[in-house]
Amino acid sequence: AGTPRDCGHFRRLSIAGPPAMPPPDWTKLDDVVVVEIARNLTRECIYPTDAMDGTLLDHARVARSNVNSAGSILATCKAWQKALDTDAEWGMAEAGIRLEPHTLEPRNLSSSDAAVADFGDDPDSFWWGIATAPAHQEDGLDDAWLRFAREGNVRAWTNVPRAEERLRAWSEPETDIRLAAGLGVQVYRMGVDWGRLVPHCRLDEPDARKCRIQNVAALERYERILRMARGYGMKVMLTLFHHSFPIWGTWPSADVLAAANDRFTARDPHWHPRSSGSGTGAMWQHPNAASLFVAFGVDVVERLGHLVDFWVIFNEPVIYTSLSHCMGMWPPGPPITSMAVKVNCLTNPETGSLKAQLNMVAAHRRLYGLIRATESRRGWRMAPVGVAHLLMDTRPYSNYGEQSGKLDEATELFLKLFARYLFIDMLRDVLDFCGINYYGEEVIQNFEPATLPHEVEYSGNGRGISATGMVNVLAQFHSRYQDDDQARFVGPSGYGYVITENGIADGSDLLRPAYIIEHLAALHHARSVLGVPVRGYIHWTVTDNWEWADGYCPKFGLVAVDRDSPSLKRHPRGSYDLYRTIVGSRRVTASQRAAAWRTITDQSSTNGTHDVCRIGMSTLDRPLQMRILGGTPDPYGVVIDWRFNATRVTLESAGARRASTLLAAAMAFSKTTGIDPVAHGLARMATLSTARESLPRHLPPRRPCPTTVSNRLWRVLVPADTSASPLPAPLDNGR
């Protein structure tokens, strides 16, 4: 409490004279806008402690009242000075910090130029970006997603013209790069496809060097694409794995799968292979996966490293391993229906999602060392290395007045146990930055997302919209790691956090302007008030594209695509211009915020609708029309308002932050007893509200584990021989 923020220390405000322009009508502004205008007037940070939020709003109301009565911004400044003299001086005195007098000349302000969020003028301190990915965009790509769609597993795909062409980003890359550069962003996030560069391999190949890059021509084309992006003035953030394992590892031969399952059987004669979920023994579950991925990465780093400004080794590893291995919703499928199987697959590190994540951790660690060694050997600048980790603001169904017992609360805790912190815990000492992908909130019911069409505003891909949720997850994450000496990304040499993805599916473009503005207001609060070191914001995405199992139904792009057009003609939406304006000015104004929300309330007052392409876990061939709710009362009489609100920020309890310790203790217990309490307990709970499934007679015991996750859980769980595998030789530049 009382620690100075980035603005340094608090200063008194003295006014040299009255403002030249008449004041705005403050009676029409809400408290949050009043606070931001007052901050703009003083040009200083006005939050001495997080606990003052409530007091601050009270002062805002007093200031607004004085302005209404006096009709002058000067009165506002005087009222604000009195508030600072009363509370801020007390807070600073308690902290032993002396207030220094400082005089500011008055500034002509209207409600239109007051900053709701100001990100300063230094692009090194904070920058803007836009994101893409190979499987979303590249034509001529024979990957697992194409095969998965051809087998009928992607709903909104067969009914879309030119579906296999995606966005022609391979044959015509400049189309979307030019659009990205037109936004004025500093960073272009893209990826390289593993399967395109290594089309032939086997998971059981003992010599990983045989599976290094084979398609040299494709690597050269990626190099040209990177140079093109840099030629347009953008830095490159390169993702090595973005939800697409090569076909040869997604559908391996029968003998490869049989050998993988034999290993389980040899260790545990009671093992039931089918209880591990989809793709048993394939993809990242296979013990060779890490070495094969590093073999691919060696050549990418050697050939492209000098053109890369940021590395993302893995995108959303927890989501990928869960939806592919444990749900069967992503390649290879098929969908898993048994709740007991899902729970075992999600919670048992001997198989399923956790087994895959442990192999990913091993691969990341080796590639981190490889990148640093290559930079040193070649004399390159150091490019920060990170991961793009999906975080959702979760809440149980019972929070919305529904009584569903303790199951939903337990499921929310489960998500925090296994999906929020565990992967980062295992990598935190080899992350220069921690990338956060945030899209919205999930209401949890019976182990799955619930849909509350009258209480929650949903985006086009079925996520609840909650700008305040972004602050919640950032604050909770930073609270966990800011004092962790092993968390490199928040240490002296760390780069901090980056919002590696944030966006909304909204083909109508009615919700997107307010979504962008409110999330940037939330991000500003996290940085300037809570002190979370966020260095960049990357919007998802430039152009409407293929969105995984949802196909082409969700429209995430700032630019629409006419898929009936032979040239896939692009049409920039209004939000493209909005984002470009924000990037150029590096601020969000009160008038922008008011106009965007007015669009929402105008639509809701006339029963306006927008497209929704997913309900819960079910994707749709064609979108449903869902009513726009912002500004209307829910069934309980509460006005639905998903704008950022500082008073609604919730910090995580100490008990929830220690949840990973319970997980580690359960692992240690299973080593001595042969009982897997987490998997058995959750599987039993899963049957309480669903059709009863037959549970496996015996689940594989977990490996030993330290008593706390903070003691480098990865060293115990990652197979010992993985880190010892030889690195493949880099690709000979002369070929």
For the biggest β-sheet, the strand order reads 4-5-6-7-8-9-11-12
**Overall geometry:** globular
- Uncertain runs are 1-28, 39-58, 63-112, 265-275, 684-735
Number of helices: 24
* Largest sheet report: 8 strands, parallel, barrel
The percentage of residues in β strands lies in 5-15%
Q: What is the C-alpha radius of gyration, as a whole number of Å?
A: 26 Å
Indicate the topology:
Layout: E1 11-15, H1 31-42, H2 53-70, H3 73-95, E2 100-104, E3 115-118, E4 127-131, H4 134-137, H5 144-150, H6 174-182, E5 187-191, H7 194-197, H8 216-231, E6 235-241, H9 247-250, H10 254-267, H11 289-304, E7 310-315, H12 317-326, H13 339-347, H14 352-378, E8 385-396, H15 407-420, H16 422-427, E9 433-445, E10 448-449, H17 467-481, E11 496-501, H18 512-528, E12 534-540, E13 559-562, E14 569-572, H19 574-585, E15 587-589, H20 590-605, E16 609-615, E17 618-627, H21 654-657, H22 659-673, H23 677-686, H24 713-717
Parallel strand pairs: 1-2, 4-5, 4-12, 5-6, 6-7, 7-8, 8-9, 9-11, 11-12
Antiparallel strand pairs: 3-15, 9-10, 13-14, 16-17
